[in-house]
């Protein structure tokens, strides 16, 4: 007989951003538990609100599946002594299986006799298995945890009730002082306590007490209500997916409503108004069909439309107070010049172990100049990037950003334009923060991209030099995100960015400009390169590049971000070629032998007079062709390496590299080292798995 089971964890209101991940976690944990316990079912339906996490499991089996298996133990020669008596290993093995040595049979496995026992495990009733969900619930993890009462147990919020109902039967277990029952709770203010007769009654009974437990249904209703209001007023309302998700997880019985604010506030930049409505008040903003922001908003109440005008008035009052503050700061900020704000940055700390914010900007200016020269920017791009680097943090000390921290960069752009800065400079100020998340938008302008790179490089180099290197999940200064940003910006712009060489150039430029911090940045360059390569490894993993290709590419000599991506593409594209195995094996042999070269191999001039067969001369010519191809890019380099493979094969057939004559041996090792260094630009091909 198939059963329906209801599990509900009733809680104090959870933060909105936790609700969806929490119900997904609970669903997965329960599914894994049932699989582990050999209990079959048809479907698991999740329910979630700010006050509850619940699952309805349908088509649940009566009991666990029975298990019949033959379990292998120690070899016969270990299980019995010379007299045929059972040894301790045999006795211990059978005891561990809940049996005795009398149950042992011998079976041959790969030519050797082993102890086996045939084991039958009868499935437990499903009610007994479901009691174990106590451990599933208590094992859940959350971004923040709390204790309550005198308990040491931690959870996202205090647990107030538990429902565990198998059809009509309560499955008994307790968490702290809360014991499972058939009683759930309706809406906190509109509903009442509900006694469930059966598990299948859950959703319908909650609806009667003003709780829409199905998050998908609740979200669809909110969206429909917003669209109805927008349509009635001919508004254009963009329903932001993130905001909709958040609002959905704040309510159990949604009722959307409209509100207004004084049109005088429309003189404030749209970004400020939108931030006030969307981010601070969780309102949906409205635009006209022409795209102009309107003095209207839509919000969602957790309740019915009873006394809705009081709710509207309250929300309007709160928004007006925030907009009044914004209007004040907007006017006051414009009374000072950018130079005034930049001067104030001399007293603002970037980090107390590193420098002030003004000193950071001076370093970034030096880095921007290096990047501008390296990337061959034109005069206009260079001037915009340099000017932006001189002022780009000024808005941090404005009143508006002090009140609305989310607008840093945005207000920098607005105020820069108001004070007559070049639009390219203003845009770079806004864009230097991008990307603000792992997959966030990237700078679209060249000056913005250069400033973003410079700012991120400075942060990583100085924090590493100050000993504040991310470890484990600890990354308080978001250096991993900044490193990912460097990689994404570089590949998006298709720029050559040799990290090690440029890092040295950045430090030299800072020292020349007398703006270098009192930190040893040079000693951290190798660590910074490895750190950025790990971000690249994560990106490769996300696009499912073969792990051995990833190891090969990142293990090579190149630190050029774009080259690493190109190398991965080349090896991936050619991995199925008929000659790929032969090429890689030949080049791998070259790399391994080059490791036996003397330390001064770079000082050895290859002497053709020491060649003892024609294959040495042919290989020498082939390597010259590879060296000529390398500056043309990795595709040309790979093609040249493929072309030289027959010469490598002939060379190894005819030549003993490790000759007795030291001069001849070193001459040959120097030749192979030259080819190995060229090959390592593509990657450490020794890491590749070829079949």
Explained architecture:
With 691 residues, the chain is an alpha+beta fold. It folds into five domains: 3-63 and 125-209; 67-121, no CATH class; 218-334, no CATH class; 340-544, Hypothetical protein af1432 (Orthogonal Bundle); 554-687, no CATH class. Helices cover 49% and strands 14% of the residues. The strands form six sheets. Strands 2-3-1-7-8 form a five-stranded antiparallel beta sheet. A hairpin with a 2-residue loop joins strand 2 (43-49) and strand 3 (52-60). 37% of the residues are buried. The model has no long low-confidence stretch (mean pLDDT 94). InterPro entries: Gly-tRNA-synth_bsu (IPR015944), Gly-tRNA-synth_heterodimer (IPR006194). One of its GO terms (biological process) is glycyl-tRNA aminoacylation. Keywords: Aminoacyl-tRNA synthetase, ATP-binding, Cytoplasm, Ligase, Nucleotide-binding, Protein biosynthesis. It comes from Levilactobacillus spicheri DSM 15429. It is found in: Cytoplasm.
